[in-house]
Amino acid sequence: MAARFAVILLSLLTIGAANAVISSESHNPSAPKAIADLREAIVKGLGIQGEGLEVSGLDVRDALVGHSVAYEFDIEVDKEVVPVKLLEDVSRWDFVDLPIFMTEEKGLAERGRRPDSRVLPELSPFQLAGPMELWIQDGDDMRLSLPHDVEAGKLKKVLLSDGAVVTVKGARSVSLRQPLDLPLPLNRTHPNNRPMASGLLTIAEALRNSARSNEKPLLSLHIVGPTSLTSSPSMSPNDKLKLRRLAPGLVELSSRSVPAVSEDVQASQNPTLWPLTSLNGSDLNLRGFEELLASVLGKKGQEEGSFRLVRAEVAARTYVKMGFTVERSLLDLEVDWSGFPEWKTRPEKAMAHFEVLARVEDNGIVIPEKIAAVQPFHMEDSVLASVQTGNVSMSQVSAAYPPPEYFTL
User: Fold this and answer.
1) Residue 145: left (phi > 0), alpha (psi -120 to 50), or beta?
2) In Å, how far from its chain's centre is CA 229?
3) What is the DSSP letter of 108?
4) More confident residue, 365 or 381
5) pLDDT tens for residues 374-399?
6) From 181's CA, which of 18, 93, 210, 280 has a CA 20 to 30 Å away?
7) In this structure, is the dihedral angle defined by the CA atoms of residues 289, 294, 296 and 297, taken in order, positive or negative?
8) 342 beta partners
9) Which secondary-structure segment (H or E) carries 111?
10) What is the gyration radius of the CA atoms in the chain, in angstroms?
11) For residues 107, 110, 113 and 118, what is the CA-based torsion angle, rounded to 10 degrees?
12) Residue 350 to residue 6: CA distance in whole angstroms
């Protein structure tokens, strides 16, 4: 019975979704602008506008804040661009006062909580290997250690020569500055007819060999907010990175030893995925991404040729999770109550509860990414026996006499 009632409410909300209005809460001048913008984006996304429907909730005091890593790729196959977006699960949700949700210091004092300044999440440290170029943004206080600290001034661009490996710490995002053409097929065959273990490793090695043969860096990355560039701990103590200043804000890091060109990246026990040498090529997450890439490429992935990686970005993001309610008045609607119990009081309003997952940008803009319906509680009905029997007197109920049991004392 409770399920039937929920179906009626959801159907009423679906029918009336074209006649909605934002509740008076959104017009509260004391509400943070970020929440007001989020509410407007939700209304546009759901397509609810007009009269008769109200959107309420979105209380900043109930907002849960978490950090995650988002992976975004644009892959071009046969002149058709396919966007791919992956998001790691948020490991922890906390009640945190973000500065974009603050209006007055008085409000903070009333809640007894202080704003959290850790609003810019960071990526875990990762290693990059040359040859490539790094464009630095918001790295004014970046530390350069080779392995000892070196004063290089404000860096805007770093060239990594072949063999140079650095560890990047404190970066907020890494993105591709220019498109890359990657070779196909994904599953190649070894010269002795032995199948390769990973198509991504083969692509990475082919890209690395191509970068070595070019005079200009083939791979160019844009890094936002790194705090330090240090020599990789895997390098020997005698093989220190050499720094050469080419221009103000431009330096080149080179290594004394250059690794030989590998003909089979699967030969080593722990193959790495260039240029991210901190990634193990046999990682299960990479296998999953390879399967996803194969499904995107389709038959193209098994043919000789290439595909283009138009855009690639890995970024640490801040997400908020909040609940809101959509409510509709039933007084002026023609509703079919045939499936509604007669003994129940007919509701005057239909209500549904939702939860929004939104991304917080560095500039304070909150963008909704996922809206899902939720059931806030489980509703059970309790009915009197007299109501179940139609309020009939017991004197009017026919008596039933069961057959006697002779073995009962």
Assistant:
1) beta
2) 27
3) H
4) 365
5) 876 666 667 777 666 666 676 776 77
6) 280
7) positive
8) none
9) helix 105-111
10) 31
11) 0
12) 9
